[in-house]
Specification:
Layout (H helix, E strand, L loop, with lengths): L9 E4 L2 H16 L5 H19 L10 E7 L2 E13 L2 E11 L8 H15 L4 E7 L3 H9 L3 E11 L17 E5 L5 H11 L26 H4 L2 E8 L2 E9 L6 E6 L6 H15 L6 E6 L4 H6 L3 E12 L1
Parallel strand pairs: 4-5, 10-11
Antiparallel strand pairs: 1-2, 2-3, 3-4, 5-12, 6-11, 6-12, 7-8, 8-9, 9-10
Length: about 325
C-alpha cells in the first residue's frame, strides 16, 4: 500500500526540452494561472524555450535549469525548481514552482520532491535556501516547516491595471499641508531607513531593483547610469516634513514597479494614499503597476488610490 512517505512513481532531473511544456501545464493547473496575466507571460516563455530547444537538434537536450520532476507511469505529475543566486559571496537557492497535479495531492509527492531538492543543494555546496508561499496555503507552510524552513516576513502584492484612456484623469485636490516634489539629497537618510524596514535586506537579492541605485550617490558611478535613467523618485511632505518617498522603476516588462518608503505610523495609510494618488494624477504614463508592501500596512491607502491586492506572500528560510 502506498503512503505519503512512499509515493508511487519516481523522481528524475528536470530537462527543459523534454519537460518544459508539461511543467508549464502542471504549474498553470496547480496554481490556477489561467486568468493571471503575469503568470501567463512566464508560462508562455517557458513553453517557447522548450519548443526552441526541441527544434535545435544540434544542441544537447539537457537544459541548464535546475529542478526535479515526479513521474507516474510516464506521466509528469510533480515539479520543483531551484533558482541559483549569489549574494555577498553566498550561494543561495530559491525553491520555486513546487507543484503537484491535483489528482495526486496528499500522496507525499511535494514533500519528497522538496526533500530531494534540499539534499541536492547541500551536495553542491549551497547552505541557504529561500522560498515564497501564499500566506493562506497552510498545508504547504506546515510541510516546509517540517523540512526545516522558518517564517521570515510577509509582503502584500498590490496591482494597478493599465489606464485605458490616458485623456481621462480624475484630479482630487488635497489640503495645502501636502506637497509632492522630486526626491532631494536630504531625503535619502530617512528614505533608506524606511526602505530597510519595508523591504528587508535579507531577500533583496531577489528583487528586480538594486536598492543601492536609489541612493543619490549612485550617480557618481557612470557604470550605473544605464539603470538610473529607468528610475524616478518623488517625495511627499506633510506640513513641510518628509512623510514618504515613492520610487518608480520603469521596465520592459508588462508592468512597472513601485517601491514605497514610509514609516509605520497612525498616518501611514493617509500618506500612502496621497502619495500614490498624486503620483497617478501627475506622473503616471498609464502602464500597469506592481508594488509590494509589508502585509496589512497601509491597506486602505492602496485601495483608495485604486490598487487591488493580488496576493500575500510569505518568505521562508532554511539553512542546511
Amino acid at each position: 500500500m502506498q503512503t505519503p512517505q512512499t509515493p508511487q512513481g519516481k523522481i528524475r532531473r528536470f530537462d527543459l526540452a523534454r519537460d518544459g511544456e508539461s511543467v508549464a501545464d502542471l504549474i498553470e493547473g496547480a496554481f490556477g494561472l489561467k486568468n493571471d496575466p503575469d503568470g501567463q507571460n512566464v508560462l508562455i516563455q517557458m513553453r517557447e524555450n522548450a519548443r526552441r530547444l526541441k527544434q535545435a537538434s544540434w544542441m544537447p537536450l539537457s537544459g541548464s535549469v535546475l529542478g526535479f520532476v515526479w513521474e507516474i507511469e510516464g506521466r509528469l505529475v510533480g515539479n520543483v525548481s531551484l533558482l541559483p543566486f549569489t549574494h555577498e559571496s553566498r550561494r543561495i537557492h530559491l525553491l520555486a514552482n513546487v507543484a503537484v497535479d491535483p489528482a495526486h495531492r496528499g500522496e507525499g509527492i511535494g514533500k519528497t520532491l522538496t526533500s530531494h531538492a534540499l539534499r541536492y543543494s547541500r551536495q553542491v555546496g549551497v547552505r541557504e535556501l529561500w522560498l515564497q508561499v501564499k500566506r493562506e496555503n497552510n498545508s504547504a507552510i506546515r510541510m516546509y516547516q517540517q523540512l526545516g524552513f522558518s517564517q521570515e516576513h510577509c509582503l502584500d502584492v498590490w496591482k494597478k491595471s493599465a489606464l485605458q484612456n490616458t485623456n481621462r484623469r480624475y484630479h482630487y485636490p488635497y489640503p495645502n499641508l501636502y506637497e509632492l516634489r522630486s526626491r532631494v539629497f536630504g531625503d535619502w537618510q530617512s528614505q533608506d531607513e524606511w526602505l530597510r524596514r519595508n523591504y528587508p535586506p535579507a531577500t533583496r537579492w531577489y528583487s528586480a531593483l538594486d536598492f543601492g541605485n536609489l541612493s543619490p550617490w549612485a550617480w557618481l558611478n557612470p557604470l550605473k547610469w544605464g539603470k538610473l535613467i529607468e528610475l524616478r523618485q518623488y517625495s511627499l511632505s506633510a506640513r513641510q516634513t518628509l512623510a514618504a518617498v515613492l520610487s518608480l522603476q520603469r521596465t520592459f516588462l508588462r508592468s512597472d514597479n513601485l517601491y514605497v518608503a514610509a514609516p509605520q505610523t497612525s498616518s501611514e495609510s493617509e500618506h500612502v494614499e496621497v502619495l500614490l494618488t498624486q503620483f497617478l494624477q501627475e506622473h503616471w504614463t498609464g502602464k500597469p503597476l506592481t508594488v509590494e508592501y509589508p502585509t496589512g500596512r497601509a491597506a486602505s491607502g492602496f485601495e483608495s488610490s485604486g490598487f487591488t491586492l493580488a496576493r500575500t506572500l510569505l518568505w521562508m528560510h532554511a539553512k542546511i
